[in-house]
Write a structure and sequence with these properties.
Blueprint lengths: L3 E4 L5 H12 L3 E6 L3 H11 L3 E3 L5 H15 L4 E4 L14 H29 L2 E6 L2 H5 L5 H21 L4 E8 L5 H4 L3 H9 L9 H12 L10 E4 L7
Parallel strand pairs: 1-2, 1-4, 2-3, 4-5, 5-6, 6-7
Bound molecules: acetoacetyl-coenzyme A.
Acetoacetyl-coenzyme A binds next to helix 5 and helix 7.
Length: about 240
């Protein structure tokens, strides 16, 4: 049977592109979402990919949500931690809620989902985990102490779990997208976004599909020797 992939935040933006590309490439896909019910229903109507809601920031809800997916579809063999939020503010104005919510979704979400699937991956001696980080976790970004910290944390988390999974056939990698044409990025004030794009050697935003290609590459059966790596897909804007 085709491998089962779970994509968090998988009904819109980069996540939707990942869900669709994995399905088109022969994976069985379940797309997680939280809050954006209308997006989820439209995505399901368009793709026929099953959609399931739980809050990745909520440990118990995530364990219960993934257990229900496993009961219905079988063990999760490919996990893409794509769910993420921004709450941009310079630190001198940032509220504790803005700090916590971004850390809990963008970084805590990786712990909560990985914790729910790792025992089964270890038992089956196979797993592919891809965590979506960000260029801003590598470079830092004005107004994103919360997001840059979470996304840098995702890279450390990826490397540590890669070490733990290596002897069990589990690879864990990160992708650091640059600015991509999604609702999240389009919410950045236009003048700031224009300056950012002017700094991209390729001269434009990424498309969600261009980020999804990286995920497809990393989750392949043949990618078993690539682990603990961070793949930047940023049009040459930041070379580290
Ligand atoms: N670099 C340096 N200085 C900057 C700056 C920057 N990027 N942005 C603003 N400033 C300066 C302003 O010119 C202003 O200077 P003066 O005080 O001398 O006039 C000062 O900083 C304003 O500071 P404030 O703290 O008052 O900033 P603000 O409240 O007006 O705006 C902000 C802060 C809302 C964070 C705004 O800068 C912003 O929206 N920035 C964009 C952040 C961004 O790129 N987010 C990415 C979202 S998409 C994403 O995250 C996806 C992904 O992975 C790439």
């Amino acid at each position: 049977m085709a491998r089962l992939a779970l994509v968090t935040g998988g009904v819109s933006g980069i996540g939707a592109a990942i869900s669709k590309l994995l399905k088109a490439s022969g994976y069985r896909v379940v797309a997680n979402y939280f809050g954006n019910e209308a997006d989820a229903q439209a995505f399901h109507a368009e793709t026929e990919i099953p959609v399931r809601t739980f809050d990745v920031a909520d440990f118990e809800a995530t364990q219960t949500g993934i257990a229900a997916i496993v009961a219905e579809f079988g063990p999760v063999e490919v996990l893409v931690n794509n769910a993420g939020i921004t709450r941009d503010s310079s630190l001198h104005k940032m509220t504790l809620e803005q700090w916590r919510s971004v850390i809990e979704v963008d970084l805590g979400g990786c712990f909560n989902t990985c914790r729910a699937v790792i025992e089964s991956m270890r038992e089956h001696r196979f797993g592919r985990i891809v965590n979506i980080s960000s260029i801003n976790g590598l470079s830092g970004q004005f107004g994103q102490t919360n997001y840059s910290a979470a996304k840098a944390g995702v890279i450390g988390f990826t490397k540590a779990l890669a070490l733990e999974g290596a002897s069990r056939g589990i690879t864990v990698n990160a992708i650091a997208p640059g600015y991509t044409g999604t609702t999240m990025v389009k919410a950045v004030p236009q003048a700031i976004l224009d300056e950012i794009v002017a700094d991209v050697p390729v001269g434009r935003l990424a498309t969600p599909e261009e980020i999804a290609r990286g995920v497809l590459f990393l989750v392949g059966e043949e990618a078993g020797f690539i682990t603990g790596e961070t793949l930047s897909i940023n049009g040459g804007r930041y070379m580290h």
